[in-house]
Amino acid sequence: MTTTMTASTTTPRPVLLISDPLPARLTAELHGDFDVRQCRGADRAALLDAVRDAEALVIRSATKVDQEVLDRAPRLRIVARAGVGLDNVDVEAATRAGVMVVNAPVSNITSVAELTVGLILSMFRNLPAAAASVRAGEWRRADFQGSELSGKSVGIVGFGRIGQLVAERLAPFEVELLTHDPFVTPEFAYAHGVAWLPLDELVATADVLTIHVPRTPATTGLIGERELALAKPTMRLVNTARGGIVDEAALARALAEDRIAGAALDVFATEPPVHSPLPHLDSVVCTPHIGAGTAEAQDRAASTVLDAVRGAFLGRPVHGLANPAVLTGNAPKEAVAV
Ligand SMILES: NC(=O)C1=CN([C@@H]2O[C@H](COP(=O)(O)OP(=O)(O)OC[C@H]3O[C@@H](n4cnc5c(N)ncnc54)[C@H](O)[C@@H]3O)[C@@H](O)[C@H]2O)C=CC1
Ligand SMILES: O=C(O)CCC(=O)C(=O)O
Fold first, then answer.
1. Within a domain: residue 7?
2. What does pTM read for this prediction?
3. Is the N end or the C end of the chain the one with fewer CB atoms within 10 Å?
4. Residue 49, Cβ neighbours under 10 Å: how many?
5. Are residues 65 and 121 in the same domain?
6. Which family does the record assign (predicted)?
7. How much is the ipTM here?
8. Gap from CA of 280 to ligand 1 centroid (Å)
């Protein structure tokens, strides 16, 4: 049976649970159609309690949707991830439970690419330390001599949507663009002005190594002790993808022993990285997972997934499901997407 959204005093509105911050302007528009509830997804107990009645759950990266959450949510029909990464959602378990999963794959890629370029330039010109020193009343011009990005080689690990945008954004800086991506052909990379290299060769060549792969079992620890040992001592590493793809202990050792020159990190294995030494190293620039933290990206991400959620409850096709198998498997609940 398809739930319809005609406003009626007799038909209860579907319960839509929002567990991470979304733009208030967009969530305000939901109230006529849904019984909108909020909780803090990072607070596991609160999430497990609130999800009991939820028919739709809208999340960002701080909410983990696993088997336990799905078990607690017998009425749940759709999980909508207002962003790109689905590493915090057990998509297979959702499929088994007959729960649709959608995300917003292009919503924030420009913001992440721009942050990546900003972090690279910040490292080359020591911007955080220079700015902090002026704020402290100092004027130490000689201490902040940097390097030009022009003429350097940039290795892009993962040549998907964000990796390609980073290449486009960096091309005017006159850098040599290199990539490694096992699912992309050298011809495809070449057509984008980028040379394809095996991972070890990429790490050994790059002046900047920037990570743009999803976090999966295969990419966890992709850049570890062995890979960092191949890097030039002048290499700087950027991770705006996911914590855990770079082995943080190995990275901290490489930085402390000056085996690489620096790192810029927007993401961490545990967020916030309270027990990590990385934010305390002078050669590291850290940001608090703000790759998608722009008004534009947040608006796009929220409106994309909220449209999908509305569609699902109106019986409209839900496009771009992350788990289309939910519609063909033995899903116990009726799915309205096609
Ligand atoms: N810091 C932030 O706020 C944000 C972070 N992200 C992260 O960025 C990641 C990438 O996003 P998109 O580019 O949109 O994804 P995408 O799916 O378009 O591209 C990912 C690329 O990684 C490649 N890849 C997979 N395994 C690989 C491996 N072992 N080695 C090299 N390449 C491999 C894939 O072939 C694909 O081309 C997301 O999964 C997410 O975790 C995304 C948005 C915001
Ligand atoms: O949604 C967020 O909180 C961060 C964005 C992100 O990491 C993503 O879209 O993959």
1. no
2. 0.94
3. N
4. 12
5. no
6. Belongs to the D-isomer specific 2-hydroxyacid dehydrogenase family.
7. 0.99
8. 27
